[in-house]
Amino acid sequence: MHFVGKLILAFLPEPEKIIKFLLIAFFIPALLLILLFAGPITAYERVPLATPSQIKIYVDAAVKVSESTKNPYSEGVKVDWKPLVAIDAVRFMQDFSKSTPAGAEKLAEMFIEKTDEIEVKEGDPPVTKRYPIYRLKSLDEVLDYLKFSAQEKEKVKEFLSIDLSFLFVADSGVLDGWIPLEGSLKWPLPGVYKITSRYGPRIDPVYGGSGFHRGIDIAAATGTPVVAAADGRVAYAGWCGGYGIAVFIWHGDGMETRYAHLSGTAVRQGAVVKAGDIIGYVGSTGKSTGPHLHLEVRVGGKAVNPLDFFK
């Protein structure tokens, strides 16, 4: 620091040396401290601080309001739960203890608007019935209705700039620093152990509502090699609906493993593989909200918890 000070003084005009040196000596360290803490604070403020149970309030509200717009003559509109969370993160200043099912439902209703209705005669004797037709309002329309300031609008959109689906995950089922114990099965992503969604009941991360997750999701970068968990024969390799690009491997004795949402495959149907052979690469194809590997283990055709094989 002394050397740096002398170097700075050497280049300063004579009358200003002492004042400027003091500014450098005291204000630059202070600035560095501000910058040091600003990063974590900024990151902290970019994520809604809601628990999975609080998130479920918004998911349920979005589903309920969406269903209310359907009728025999209209498919209705789909209200997304994520803007609801982002709006209340701003309205409640991150205090989601203020969220209620009624409040979330009222907010979800702000996203729908009746635009027309269909009048039909049904029954015998005929009875006139009217079925409303709705449209989905834009986020800006709702924010204007709520009288959000420009700064508040920007904050809502900042929350929505990241994928909020991870907020569903209450418990991955493993502790931080967990490493799988390989036995009859080999871990499909060597060195990558970040589980973002466990086996069992959960809220659907794409459509909302309750569901059952038949495998585990392991977060990894797109292109990360995926290896076979055991010796076997490739029963399927290619596109498979919600699985996206997937590889299914038959291991015999009623056991099958499935690897889904791949960006590409490295094997073909019918190929014989050994445990540890590369069979594909992590991606985000099919029904997916971000790059990860969905791993399923099936015994006798029934999905079982993959983590049971790595304890």
From TrEMBL:
UniProt GO MF annotations: metalloendopeptidase activity
Keyword Transmembrane: yes
Protein origin, superkingdom: Bacteria
Ranges annotated as spanning the membrane: 21-44
Sequence ranges assigned to domain M23ase beta-sheet core in this UniProt record: 212-306
InterPro entries the UniProt entry points to: Cell_wall_metabolism_enzyme, Dup_hybrid_motif, M23ase_b-sheet_dom
Keywords (A to Z) from UniProt: Membrane, Transmembrane, Transmembrane helix
Protein name in the entry: Peptidase M23
Organism phylogeny: Bacteria, Bacillati, Bacillota, Clostridia, Thermosediminibacterales
